Amino acid sequence: MSLIRVRGLSVSLGGRRVLDGVDLAIAPGEIVTIVGPNGSGKSTLLRAIIGAVPAAAGTIERQGGLRLGYVPQKLALDASMPLKVRHFLDLPRPVSPGERARALDEAGAGGLEERQLAALSGGQLQRVLLARALLGRPQLLLLDEATQGLDQPAAASFYRRIETLRNRTGAAILMVSHELHVVMSASDRVICLNGHVCCAGKPEQVASAPEYRALFGTGTGGALALYRHEHDHAHDHDRHGEQAP
Amino acid sequence: MSLLLAPFMLRAALAALGVALAAAPLGAFVVWRRMAYFGDAISHGAMLGVALALAASLPVFWGVLAVTLVLALAVAALAGRGVPVDTLLGVAAHGALALGLVAVSFVPGVRIDLMAYLFGDVLAVGGADLALIWAGAALLLGLAAWRWRALLLSAVDEDLAIASGLSPRRERLTLMLALALLVAFSLKVVGALLVSALLILPAAAARPLARGPGWMVAAAMAIGAASALGGLALAALADSPAAPSIVSLAALAFLLTHGLASLRHRGDCQRGQ
Ligand SMILES: Nc1ncnc2c1ncn2[C@@H]1O[C@H](COP(=O)(O)OP(=O)(O)OP(=O)(O)O)[C@@H](O)[C@H]1O
Ligand SMILES: [Mg+2]
Q: Ligand 1: does its nearest atom lie under 6 Å from the Cβ of A12?
């Protein structure tokens, strides 16, 4: 039984088709990673799953009463609102100090309670966002580039934490990542997205798939593959607005 | 001095206090969501409501409420369609105000005191007005308290709100309708031109004092209430126009809190932080 099942999902934003016929299912306890170049619709797919963008075609089925945790790629924070981390974690439901401290520790953000959210560093904010997502005891955790802004040891320990979490709570994790080298070792399944699903499967399978190589170069799935990415993708969904730096 | 304790002065004070308290939470959300022009649009649109109410010989309150509600819904609907919101609000604000003034000039046989609706006439507030204001204020404060966390999370990030099972669209609409209501019942006190000032200034002045959203609302209430009472006292003692005096004090509070905050900040830097 899947937690969510996406069938033939198409999404249009601003008159452009961003996702086209995407199929996807997540089972309990799975760690699934979405990779793809900038502008390939990874964030849009996660936003469609939480219900923030409407589907132009296709369906998204959720298991009844599914508890979602969502860590967005960026937060539209406005410094005009004074908001401590502690207040932020109390939205939309107040939590006990014990729960709060546990979630912050689990996300590696212990001791940030009294800091202003708008004044956190990028990496600290990511950890706080993860802590907030954990408070809802999610069965499915959606992470959109949750390791951006984390230094390398922190990113590594972040993935370890995610794995521990999965092992402890049985939560499934669907994450977007550009860190191909880590992704390959930390995921059960990889989905390569470029407007549509180019290829999907076990990390080794995906890494050797021609579609994947077309997108990320012929490296062994190392981080450098991304930097060698060129506009030689065979599909007609060439929507890379910008290349990876 | 005895002027300060005259019954009409007490009524004025209670009315201004009610408006200031109700405006505080809404003003905070207007500041957080960068909707400052929205207050303008709705309050200026109120003039059209005044004209229509007079033409139809309805109570002004209902005319204003009807027009501001329609305006709030129209702006909310159009804003979701890709029209730049500040352009839209500018058109709505100026268009509705101008149309209102033109319409008022055509109302036959009635010579109305336009100034009273543009700048309010807090000193002429009667018992029924007072009841209306406090009923409205209680309603708005109750609404803000009831929806507090949902409104707050929607203002922080709409996607997070959706992921938590809330509907940010609904919260935005709630806020807009609440603003329409506030404008309708406070028109008599501060007038169309100054409603949005009383909405935004106390909240903006409260920002540097507050470490949390609840505190910001509380501080906005205190600043709004102090400006209301101080402005009325000024009006009574110096014979200045009441509503502009209130707003001037709120603007002064803004300068004070922001000035103090930047002084304190500079102090931090000099101590090597
Ligand atoms: N609100 C929007 N309106 C119009 N177009 C949008 C909107 N949001 C995203 N897009 C477009 O949709 C496409 C997919 O965007 P999306 O954010 O899903 O990409 P992504 O794969 O997450 O990219 P990145 O790796 O840079 O985060 C892009 O071409 C983008 O320009
Ligand atoms: Mg993205």
A: no
Residue type, B31: V
Taking alpha carbons only, the member of B58, B62, B22, B1 closest to residue B203 is B22
For the ranges A224-233, B24-33, B50-59, B245-254, the lowest mean pLDDT is seen at: A224-233
Mean pLDDT for the stretch of residues B162-177: 91
The letter for the amino acid at A103 is A
Asked if B34's CB is within 8 angstroms of A70's CB, the reply is no
The tokens for A50 are 């939480």
Task: Indicate the residue of B157, B211, B216 with minimum beta-carbon distance to A72.
Answer: B157
**Domains by residue range for chain A, with CATH:** 4-67+138-241 (3.40.50.300)
Give the residue-averaged pLDDT of B148-163. Answer: 94
Q: How remote is the CA of residue A32 from the centroid of ligand 2, in Å?
A: 16
Cβ separation of B160 and A69 shorter than 8 Å? no
> Which of A10, A12, A13, A196 is the best mutation target for the ligand 1 pocket, counting ligand atoms within 8 Å of the beta carbon and taking the most?
A13
* Residue whose pair of structure tokens reads 């040891």 in the numeric block: A153
Distances (CA, A) of B57 to B69, B101, B127, B265: 19, 17, 21, 56
pLDDT score of B56: 83
Average pLDDT of the residues in B12-21? 93
For the domain made up of B2-272, give the CATH fold.
ABC transporter involved in vitamin B12 uptake, BtuC (1.10.3470)
Question: What whole-number percentage of chain B has pLDDT above 70?
Answer: 94
Is the CB of A244 within 6 Å of ligand 1?
A: no
Answer whether residue B185 shows pLDDT above 80.
yes
Cα dihedral B202, B203, B205, B208 sign: positive
Domain boundaries, chain B: 2-272
Is the Cβ atom of A239 under 6 angstroms away from ligand 1?
yes
* CB-based contact A174:A28 (threshold 8 Å): no
Q: How far is B82 from chain A (nearest CA, A)?
A: 9
This prediction has a pTM of: 0.86
User: DSSP for A121-146?
Assistant: -HHHHHHHHHHHHHHT--SEEEEEST
CA of A149 to the centre of ligand 2 (A): 14
Burial A206-240 (b: 16+ CB within 10 A, else e): bbebebbbbbbbebebeeebbeebeeebeeebebb
Inter-chain contact A76–B157, Cβ cutoff 8 Å? yes
pLDDT tier, A220 (very low <50, low <70, confident <90, very high otherwise) = very low
The backbone torsions φ and ψ at residue B176, rounded to the nearest 5 degrees and listed phi first, read: -65, -40
Helix (H) / strand (E) containing A25: strand A16-26
ipTM, two decimals, is 0.84
Condensed to tens digits (0 to 9), the pLDDT of residues B130-151 reads 999 999 999 999 999 999 999 9
